[in-house]
Specification:
It contains 15 helices and 17 strands. The chain is α/β, with parallel strands linked by helices. The chain has a six-stranded mixed beta sheet. Helix 8 (about 255-265) links the parallel strand 9 (about 230-235) and strand 10 (about 270-275). The longest helix has 18 residues, at about 110-130. The radius of gyration is 25 Å and the shape is globular.
């Protein structure tokens, strides 16, 4: 006999279905263009992607950027994370905001209050655009003058000073409402290879790393006094063979889980550096790299690329989860960390009042001027226009963007620095690395070398003898040229205004280099 059915009102309520795992909640992507096209918006919604990194190619006018971030928030929802690299100096994607000094320029000033004010000003500018996550400041201790990618992006060679100044910069940004991401764990300051182009190796023991590279990361891993804990950490695509000989840090469980999470006790967000960089992409590819990063202990792979490549990374994460190759509890904690970050620092544009913007621009110019640094210039006088000294100025014709930094200063802008001088012969060369003794004839003119490129000089340059070297970008170029040098740490308007004032005898160069730049000291 058929059992009587229970009345509907007496039936137990079905248990709520567990939400399906969404790989999109854990992956950051990039997008094409200065506006959100329909195909990309549909992809973000369909895959429930919540995080996008913006690059220079995405930045049109200020109004266009605000429209873009608003459209991204609509597509990605309330947990949207919109990120950018706005470190200051040459790594400043948004060029229409007040331009912050490079970290090493601030290191040359060594003023925590100034660092905090600069960090806050950067944060105000980004927040006004609807950007809520800045991949800065850099915690790398640049103790290697041959480092091809960090240099002036670091606060210096002293780990305590790096932690102190970067912590103050971060405190300012957080106060302004923009999350920071310190980088590149466990340290990118002692490499000879750029991980954008190849896979570097740092052959140091854990004890050696603890003595230098790890000290700033330990200092900012937890709240200490006035310094809050870093909300996020970015990983380095570097192999540390004495800790994990098989994997770069980004994909290394001994480094991300064993060292960062367990030994250091960090519980904030861990995001990878871009997986499209050759250090990862050429060996592992987007898809496998994203899975391995999560397995290692990262919360969010930064999986840029075409829509097809991004789909492949998401599909690979989903397939690994279904096969049980990813820890479900760990993924849930990652989602919680990311949602908490987005809740604490919401991606909502706000006003940037004109008086505040003007004050921030003045702050940046003053900071650049305070960081201007003279190297081996004892007894040298500025090239005051009143003396009508004939000059020869040698510089590189143009410097293209290298994918990390913005394009270097063009020759026409270099020449404008000498507008107040009556007799100047300008020489534009295709590549400054090819200069030699013959580049600077001894014919009565004062020879001025203006280094507007980033790479170090070769051996032939050691025989060159200019009377003055103006290093506008990589400070370690001062080690390559046997001449008095003025180091600007960058080529933003504030840096160039300070340099021009020094050239014309209207200002001093008061900065103290936070790295060894004196002749014969490497």
């Amino acid at each position: 006999m058929r059992q009587a059915e229970r009345p509907a009102a007496m039936r137990p309520e079905p248990a709520p279905a567990e939400p399906a795992f969404q790989p999109g909640h854990l992956v950051m992507v990039d997008i094409p263009g200065t506006a959100l096209d329909a195909a990309t918006a549909q992809f973000l919604r369909r895959r429930q992607v919540r995080a996008v990194c913006l690059f220079r190619r995405n930045l049109g006018t200020e109004a266009e950027v605000r429209r873009l971030t608003a459209d991204l928030r609509e597509a990605m929802g309330p947990h949207a994370l919109i990120a950018i690299d706005q470190e200051g100096g040459s790594v400043s994607r948004v060029t229409f905001l007040p331009q912050a000094p490079a970290a090493m320029a601030l290191g040359a000033v060594d003023d925590e209050d100034l660092c905090e004010a600069v960090g806050a000003a950067v944060g105000r500018g980004l927040r006004s655009l609807g950007i809520n996550w800045n991949f800065a400041p850099v915690l790398d201790v640049n103790n290697n003058p041959a480092n091809p990618v960090i240099a002036e992006r670091s606060f210096g060679a002293d780990p305590e000073a790096v932690a102190r100044l970067a912590g103050a910069w971060m405190r300012g940004s957080l106060r302004a409402g923009v999350a920071c991401c310190v980088k590149h764990f466990p340290g990118h300051g002692d490499t000879h290879v750029d991980s954008h182009h190849a896979l570097p190796t740092v052959d140091k023991s854990l004890a050696e790393l603890e003595a230098l590279e790890l000290r700033p990361f330990r200092a900012l891993a937890r709240e200490r006094g006035r310094i809050p804990a870093a909300p996020a950490v970015m990983t380095a695509h570097i192999v540390y063979p004495r800790i994990d000989p098989s994997h770069p840090a980004t994909l290394s469980r001994p480094i991300l889980t064993g060292l960062l999470r367990e030994a250091i006790g960090y519980d904030g967000v861990v995001i990878t550096d871009a997986l499209f960089m050759k250090a990862i992409h050429e060996k592992y590819g987007h898809a496998l790299g994203a899975v391995m990063a999560l397995q290692a202990g990262a919360d969010m792979p930064l999986a840029q690329g075409s829509l097809a490549e991004q789909e492949a990374a998401l599909d690979a994460i989903g397939a690994a989860w279904r096969r049980g190759e990813l820890d479900a509890a760990a993924l849930a904690r990652s989602v919680q960390r990311l949602e908490a970050l987005a809740a604490r620092y919401p991606a909502a544009a706000c006003d940037y009042p004109a008086p505040q913007r003007a004050d921030d621009a003045a702050l940046m110019r003053a900071a650049w001027a305070r960081g201007l640094c003279a190297v081996d210039c004892a007894g040298m006088k500025p090239l005051a226009p009143a003396r009508s000294t004939p000059l020869r100025v040698v510089t590189q014709a143009s410097v293209e963007c290298d994918g990390v930094s913005e394009a270097g200063l063009p020759a026409a802008r270099v020449e404008a620095l000498f507008a107040g001088f009556a007799d100047v012969q300008f020489e534009r060369v295709p590549d400054l690395r090819g200069i030699a003794a013959a580049t600077f004839p001894q014919d009565g003119r004062v020879n001025v070398l203006v280094s507007n490129h980033r790479q170090r000089f070769g051996a032939d340059a050691a025989r060159a003898r200019p009377d003055l070297h103006l290093a506008l970008w990589n400070p370690f170029q001062a080690l390559d040229i046997a001449a008095p040098a003025i180091v600007t740490w960058g080529y933003a308007d504030g840096a160039l205004e300070a340099l021009q004032a020094w050239l014309e005898g209207r200002a001093d160069a008061p900065g103290q280099a936070p790295v060894a730049l004196a002749a014969g000291v490497a």
